[in-house]
Amino acid sequence: MNILLVGSGGREHALAWKIAASPLVRRLVAAPGNPGMAAQAELRNVSATDVEGLVALAREIAADLVVIGPESSVAAGLGDAVVAAGIPCFGPSAQAGQLESSKAFTKAFCDRYGLPTSAYAVCGSAAEARAALPRFQPPYVIKADGLAAGKGVVIAATREEAEAAIDDAFGGRFGAAGARVVLEEFLEGEIGSLFALCDGKDSMVFGWAQDHKRAFDGEQGPNTGGMGTYSPAPVFTPELVEQVRTRLVEPAFAGIAADGAPYRGVLFVELMATRDGPKLVEFNVRFGDPECQVLMLRLESDIVPYLLACAQGRLAGMPAPTWRDESAVCVVMAARGYPEKPAAGGAINGADADFGADTVVLHAGTKRDEAGQLRASGGRVLNACARGATLREARDRAYAAVDAIDFPDGFCRRDIGWRALV
Ligand code: GLY
What is the pLDDT at residue 348? Predict the structure, then answer.
């Protein structure tokens, strides 16, 4: 098979690493990809939101499947355009993609179809949002309505911080994504990320993990796109998985189909396991980053048949995937200053060393300069990922890779997986 993989982050490097291991794959092309992905895929410099360019590239390589990594491609309508071109596509339509591209849409969707989530208020101006604040208790959760690369959420401890976050959002901090703001009730509980595949009618759960969203150890600092993950996460008891499947996953797929946009691809359910059962924090219409990294390390099955079955409406005939009976950990190495102002261009050495059979360092935001030196080119730069018989072993291997990489302008959290290790 010829496969076009769209995207350039750590999630896409993890997908490339797993897809390239499939005996079904003859040619894997990544657009635009990143320097690390060059080990698994041919890189083509077409942006992830250049819908016309990507469809042309898919045709040029006679793609049997297009795999969409990032939400920006979904929102740009890539899924619709690929399907219209007659090419099987793993990734939803832009209409279904509203489950991520608009938090206000998703809250109304939850109301419409009875999915459990937090109380909320959608506000179109700073005055409206300030007036709505007394309806909530601290800490206040303030979210940009639109896509903000995982950085559109502020959790404010005080009313003053909340008002400042509201003013920031309406002052343009998130660009067009902050034209509306959603205030939410703060949910108490443990966070979890569960993934489910859907082919438009049939669906299956496809793994789970736990992410660390705050920038610094001890769950301190600003919210980020995710600083590290581990899988499996003990929060996902069989009972919780079943509750998430029946209360969130299946109603979501049924609801979006009833709205006229049957879902095709992976749905990422970010949930809070509360005393009253799982509640939706948000949906994302792609694999999580860096959740995908630990899932790909643990996935024993060939991923390609699952991606293709989603694209071709054949999921009902697929067995449940098999997972290694091991733990996996991903530690994000970020550029100093992330998420607010990541230092650009820091030199990196040693990232492409051989760290052993159970460790892989994935690239997330890197580039090579003209002299061939690897440099940081984004907030989250590298992902040190490892498997182990225990979570502790996986974590120690991942941090051994972190410690062997020379990235003076980088930082990472040192406590990934702490909840399962105490
Ligand atoms: N790690 C959370 C996300 O991918 O949005």
Answer: 98
pLDDT for 104 beyond 80 = yes
18-26: long-range pairs with CB below 8 Å, 24+:
18/296, 18/299, 18/303, 19/67, 19/303, 19/304, 19/307, 21/302, 22/302, 22/303, 22/304, 23/302, 24/302, 24/304, 24/305, 25/1, 25/304, 26/1, 26/2
Hey, where are the domains in the chain?
A: 2-91, 119-184, 190-317, 327-421
CA of 36 to the centre of ligand 1 (A): 20
pTM of the model: 0.96
Domain 190-317 adopts which CATH fold? D-amino Acid Aminotransferase; Chain A, domain 1 (3.30.470)
Atom of ligand 1 nearest to the CA of 291: 1
Averaged pLDDT, 40-67: 98
Q: Which of 99, 223, 269, 284 to mutate to test the pocket of ligand 1 (most atoms within 8 A of CB)?
A: 284
59 CA to centre of ligand 1 in angstroms: 30
Distance of CA 296 to the CA centre of its chain: 13
How distant is the alpha carbon of residue 89 from its chain centre?
Answer: 18
304: confidence class by pLDDT, cuts 50, 70, 90: very high
Euclidean distance between CA atoms 225 and 270, whole angstroms: 12
Q: How far apart are CA 381 and CA 384, in angstroms?
A: 10
2-91: CATH topology: Rossmann fold (3.40.50)
Ligand 1: lining residues by beta carbon, under 6 Å? 150, 211, 225-226, 284, 288-289, 291
